[in-house]
Design brief:
It is built from five helices and seven strands. The chain has helices at about 35-45, 85-100, 125-135, 150-165, 180-190; strands at about 5-10, 25-30, 65-70, 70-75, 110-115, 140-145, 170. Bound molecules: guanosine-5'-diphosphate (GDP). Guanosine-5'-diphosphate binds next to helix 1.
Protein backbone atom coordinates (compact mmCIF):
# COMPACT_ATOMS: atom_id res chain seq x y z
CA UNK A 1 0.00 0.00 0.00
CA UNK A 2 1.22 3.50 -0.80
CA UNK A 3 0.13 7.06 -0.27
CA UNK A 4 -2.18 7.84 -3.18
CA UNK A 5 -3.90 11.00 -2.11
CA UNK A 6 -2.90 13.78 0.26
CA UNK A 7 -5.07 16.63 1.39
CA UNK A 8 -4.14 19.31 3.90
CA UNK A 9 -6.81 19.12 6.55
CA UNK A 10 -5.94 21.66 9.22
CA UNK A 11 -3.29 23.00 11.53
CA UNK A 12 -3.51 22.09 15.18
CA UNK A 13 -2.01 24.63 17.55
CA UNK A 14 -2.80 22.92 20.83
CA UNK A 15 -5.58 22.64 23.35
CA UNK A 16 -8.32 22.71 20.76
CA UNK A 17 -10.97 20.17 20.02
CA UNK A 18 -9.64 17.17 18.10
CA UNK A 19 -12.98 15.39 17.84
CA UNK A 20 -13.30 15.69 14.08
CA UNK A 21 -9.83 14.14 13.66
CA UNK A 22 -10.68 11.30 15.99
CA UNK A 23 -12.95 9.73 13.40
CA UNK A 24 -9.89 8.37 11.59
CA UNK A 25 -6.58 6.93 12.86
CA UNK A 26 -3.74 9.38 13.35
CA UNK A 27 -0.11 8.68 12.53
CA UNK A 28 2.34 11.20 13.99
CA UNK A 29 5.73 12.09 12.51
CA UNK A 30 8.25 13.73 14.78
CA UNK A 31 12.01 14.13 14.98
CA UNK A 32 14.87 16.40 15.79
CA UNK A 33 14.95 19.37 13.47
CA UNK A 34 17.09 18.63 10.39
CA UNK A 35 16.76 14.82 10.68
CA UNK A 36 14.83 14.94 7.40
CA UNK A 37 11.21 14.68 8.51
CA UNK A 38 9.86 17.07 5.88
CA UNK A 39 11.91 15.48 3.10
CA UNK A 40 10.64 12.08 4.19
CA UNK A 41 6.98 13.15 4.25
CA UNK A 42 7.36 14.77 0.83
CA UNK A 43 8.95 11.58 -0.51
CA UNK A 44 6.22 9.31 0.89
CA UNK A 45 3.52 11.63 -0.41
CA UNK A 46 5.40 12.18 -3.68
CA UNK A 47 4.75 15.86 -3.35
CA UNK A 48 7.53 18.39 -3.18
CA UNK A 49 6.88 21.31 -0.89
CA UNK A 50 4.02 19.66 0.97
CA UNK A 51 5.80 19.59 4.30
CA UNK A 52 8.02 22.58 4.92
CA UNK A 53 11.70 21.74 5.01
CA UNK A 54 14.20 23.13 7.49
CA UNK A 55 14.32 26.53 5.82
CA UNK A 56 11.50 27.40 8.20
CA UNK A 57 12.69 25.25 11.11
CA UNK A 58 12.17 26.84 14.44
CA UNK A 59 9.20 28.75 13.16
CA UNK A 60 6.75 25.88 12.97
CA UNK A 61 4.76 25.70 16.14
CA UNK A 62 1.72 23.83 14.95
CA UNK A 63 0.90 20.29 13.93
CA UNK A 64 -0.15 20.00 10.30
CA UNK A 65 -2.79 17.35 9.76
CA UNK A 66 -2.95 15.78 6.29
CA UNK A 67 -5.68 13.41 5.21
CA UNK A 68 -4.04 10.43 3.49
CA UNK A 69 -5.92 8.14 1.08
CA UNK A 70 -9.06 9.41 2.82
CA UNK A 71 -8.33 6.79 5.49
CA UNK A 72 -5.97 8.28 8.07
CA UNK A 73 -4.36 11.52 9.23
CA UNK A 74 -0.66 12.11 8.94
CA UNK A 75 0.21 14.48 11.77
CA UNK A 76 3.35 16.45 10.93
CA UNK A 77 4.73 17.65 14.25
CA UNK A 78 7.23 20.50 14.60
CA UNK A 79 10.86 19.39 14.89
CA UNK A 80 12.56 19.59 18.27
CA UNK A 81 16.10 20.57 19.21
CA UNK A 82 16.48 23.49 16.83
CA UNK A 83 19.35 25.41 18.40
CA UNK A 84 18.12 28.86 17.44
CA UNK A 85 14.55 28.37 18.55
CA UNK A 86 13.44 31.07 20.94
CA UNK A 87 12.72 30.19 24.55
CA UNK A 88 9.07 31.05 23.99
CA UNK A 89 8.76 28.74 20.96
CA UNK A 90 10.58 25.99 22.83
CA UNK A 91 7.98 26.29 25.56
CA UNK A 92 5.12 26.16 23.03
CA UNK A 93 6.65 23.10 21.36
CA UNK A 94 7.09 21.25 24.64
CA UNK A 95 3.48 21.99 25.50
CA UNK A 96 2.32 20.74 22.12
CA UNK A 97 4.28 17.48 22.47
CA UNK A 98 2.97 16.88 25.96
CA UNK A 99 -0.59 17.73 25.00
CA UNK A 100 -0.70 15.71 21.78
CA UNK A 101 1.93 12.98 21.90
CA UNK A 102 2.40 12.09 25.56
CA UNK A 103 -1.28 12.40 26.42
CA UNK A 104 -2.81 8.95 27.02
CA UNK A 105 -6.23 10.32 26.01
CA UNK A 106 -5.09 11.15 22.47
CA UNK A 107 -4.75 8.00 20.45
CA UNK A 108 -2.20 7.56 17.68
CA UNK A 109 -2.18 4.44 15.56
CA UNK A 110 1.56 4.90 15.19
CA UNK A 111 4.28 7.41 16.07
CA UNK A 112 7.16 7.64 13.61
CA UNK A 113 10.31 9.12 15.15
CA UNK A 114 12.85 10.26 12.57
CA UNK A 115 16.50 10.28 13.63
CA UNK A 116 19.69 11.06 11.75
CA UNK A 117 21.55 7.77 11.17
CA UNK A 118 24.91 9.52 10.88
CA UNK A 119 24.46 11.52 14.10
CA UNK A 120 22.81 8.65 16.00
CA UNK A 121 20.39 9.16 18.86
CA UNK A 122 20.93 12.53 20.52
CA UNK A 123 20.05 13.15 24.17
CA UNK A 124 16.82 14.78 23.00
CA UNK A 125 15.95 11.73 20.88
CA UNK A 126 16.59 9.48 23.87
CA UNK A 127 14.45 11.68 26.10
CA UNK A 128 11.65 11.60 23.52
CA UNK A 129 11.78 7.78 23.28
CA UNK A 130 11.91 7.40 27.02
CA UNK A 131 8.85 9.63 27.42
CA UNK A 132 7.01 7.81 24.63
CA UNK A 133 7.79 4.41 26.13
CA UNK A 134 5.93 5.45 29.27
CA UNK A 135 2.78 6.02 27.22
CA UNK A 136 2.76 2.49 25.78
CA UNK A 137 1.99 3.89 22.32
CA UNK A 138 3.19 2.16 19.16
CA UNK A 139 6.46 3.71 17.93
CA UNK A 140 8.84 3.02 15.04
CA UNK A 141 12.17 4.71 14.47
CA UNK A 142 13.28 5.80 11.02
CA UNK A 143 17.07 6.08 10.85
CA UNK A 144 17.32 8.51 7.94
CA UNK A 145 20.38 9.60 5.93
CA UNK A 146 21.96 6.13 5.88
CA UNK A 147 23.52 7.23 2.58
CA UNK A 148 25.85 9.37 4.68
CA UNK A 149 27.29 6.33 6.44
CA UNK A 150 30.48 4.84 5.08
CA UNK A 151 30.14 1.19 4.16
CA UNK A 152 32.44 0.13 6.99
CA UNK A 153 30.54 2.13 9.60
CA UNK A 154 27.06 1.11 8.52
CA UNK A 155 26.57 -2.05 10.59
CA UNK A 156 28.22 -0.67 13.72
CA UNK A 157 26.18 2.53 13.64
CA UNK A 158 22.88 0.75 12.90
CA UNK A 159 23.54 -1.75 15.70
CA UNK A 160 24.19 1.13 18.09
CA UNK A 161 20.96 2.88 17.08
CA UNK A 162 18.97 -0.36 17.38
CA UNK A 163 20.41 -1.02 20.83
CA UNK A 164 19.62 2.49 22.04
CA UNK A 165 16.15 2.51 20.48
CA UNK A 166 15.18 -0.93 21.79
CA UNK A 167 12.54 -2.29 22.01
CA UNK A 168 11.34 -0.21 19.08
CA UNK A 169 11.76 -1.28 15.47
CA UNK A 170 14.42 0.72 13.60
CA UNK A 171 13.99 1.14 9.85
CA UNK A 172 17.15 2.10 7.93
CA UNK A 173 16.14 4.87 5.55
CA UNK A 174 17.51 7.31 3.03
CA UNK A 175 15.36 9.97 1.42
CA UNK A 176 18.29 10.78 -0.82
CA UNK A 177 18.66 7.22 -2.13
CA UNK A 178 14.98 6.31 -1.68
CA UNK A 179 15.85 3.41 0.62
CA UNK A 180 13.40 2.00 3.16
CA UNK A 181 10.09 3.17 1.69
CA UNK A 182 8.42 -0.28 1.54
CA UNK A 183 9.49 -1.07 5.11
CA UNK A 184 8.05 2.18 6.42
CA UNK A 185 4.88 1.85 4.35
CA UNK A 186 4.39 -1.64 5.79
CA UNK A 187 4.35 -0.19 9.32
CA UNK A 188 2.16 2.76 8.33
CA UNK A 189 -0.45 0.65 6.58
CA UNK A 190 -0.45 -2.20 9.12
CA UNK A 191 -4.04 -2.77 10.19
P1 LIG B 1 13.48 18.45 8.96
O1 LIG B 1 13.96 19.67 9.67
O2 LIG B 1 13.55 17.24 9.84
O3 LIG B 1 12.13 18.60 8.32
O4 LIG B 1 14.56 18.14 7.84
P2 LIG B 1 14.54 18.46 6.26
O5 LIG B 1 13.62 17.55 5.55
O6 LIG B 1 14.38 19.92 6.06
O7 LIG B 1 16.03 18.01 5.88
C1 LIG B 1 17.16 18.62 6.46
C2 LIG B 1 18.34 18.49 5.51
O8 LIG B 1 18.74 17.13 5.37
C3 LIG B 1 18.01 18.99 4.11
O9 LIG B 1 19.15 19.65 3.60
C4 LIG B 1 17.75 17.69 3.33
O10 LIG B 1 18.04 17.80 1.97
C5 LIG B 1 18.71 16.75 4.02
N1 LIG B 1 18.29 15.34 3.93
C6 LIG B 1 17.07 14.84 4.22
N2 LIG B 1 17.05 13.51 4.04
C7 LIG B 1 18.29 13.14 3.64
C8 LIG B 1 18.90 11.88 3.31
O11 LIG B 1 18.32 10.80 3.33
N3 LIG B 1 20.23 11.92 2.98
C9 LIG B 1 20.95 13.07 2.94
N4 LIG B 1 22.25 12.99 2.61
N5 LIG B 1 20.40 14.28 3.24
C10 LIG B 1 19.09 14.31 3.59
Amino acid sequence: MNIKSVQFERAVVGDEDLDELKELPQIAFIGRSNAGKSSLINLLAQKKGLARTSATAGLTKEINAYLINKTFYLMDMPGYGYARMSVQNRHILRGLIEWYLLNPDVEQKLIVVIVDAKVGLTDLDKEMLSQLSQTGKRVVIVANKTDKLKKNDYRKQMDKIKKEAAPYLVIPFSVEKKIGIPDLNREIFKP
